[in-house]
Amino acid sequence: MSPKSFASAMLAAVLLLLASQSLYVVNETERAIKLMFREVVDPDIKPGLHVKIPFVETVKKFDGRVLTLDIASARYLTKGNKFVIVDAFAKWRIKDVQVYYKATSGNRAEGSKLLTSLMNKGLRDEIASRTMHDVVSGERDALMTRLTELLNKETQKDLGIEVLDVRVKAIDLPEDLSKSVYDRMSAERAREAREHRSQGRELAEGIQADADRQKTVIEAQAYRDAERTRGEGDAEAARIYSAAYSKDPEFYSFTRSLKAYTETFGANDMILLKPDSDFFRYLKSPDGK
């Protein structure tokens, strides 16, 4: 290679190196800050192609998207001196790049650590001002909303971070307290069950007694009506018999004697009576004389 060609190649290499050190791109999903000798000269670089002084100015880039911080489950003390185990997470993003860089030195792990500490402090303060019932169900939404507001104010000022939302994934009780609560709930349900059974037995006995009373009344009324109907039938039958037999008393007496004969004598029966007994008067004479 000739000296002229070698010089041209070296010049091209130097120009490429200067260009690579002078030009940089900030993506839409990134936030960037420009430093000169570790001093901030541009606190918020917009997305696009930019130029910097090589070897003098440096550019720090950070993820500008919404990020998730999932903190480890921890024990917190409620207003009633009861412990609860809370598992929560937060949605956050960089709001002020310069403040974020100064607070974390551009280290995302350090930012997550500081935000975790503030979240734990906020959760501890908010849960300590509420009872267990409020934390578990009553004011759970209000707790998350207030914690988001308070945490967002503090992190924007101290960390340059905007907290968009804080959510509680789960609230559990410690094992010893869970057993105590379970035993208390079991005893309460058993007591309610006994009360319901007692009320059911009392109601059943009342229904049974009322049914027995109605049964007795109905049977008495039915017996009374049956006896009245039977008496009326017997009276009507006697009246009919009397009316029929009064038309021919002699014939009535004759049929009564025949009936007495058939009911008295069987195949091998024997009866001893005087021959002139009135019982045989229709056997002696058709007219019974």
Name the descriptors.
single chain; 289 residues; alpha+beta; Tetrahydropterin Synthase, Chain A; 4 domains; four-stranded antiparallel sheet; three-stranded antiparallel sheet; 57% helix; 21% strand; signal; protease; Band_7/SPFH_dom_sf; Protein HflC
Short description:
With 289 residues, the protein is α+β, with helices and mostly antiparallel strands. The chain has helices at residues 3-22, 97-104, 108-128, 132-138, 140-158, 175-245, 249-264, 281-284; strands spanning 23-26, 30-36, 39-45, 48-51, 57-63, 67-70, 74-77, 83-94, 161-172.
Description:
- The protein has 289 residues and is an alpha+beta fold.
- The protein contains eight helices and nine strands.
- It has helices spanning 3-22, 97-104, 108-128, 132-138, 140-158, 175-245, 249-264, 281-284, and strands at residues 23-26, 30-36, 39-45, 48-51, 57-63, 67-70, 74-77, 83-94, 161-172.
- The radius of gyration is 56 Å and the shape is rod-shaped.
- The relative contact order is 0.07.
- Its main location: membrane.
- Residues 1-25 form the signal peptide.
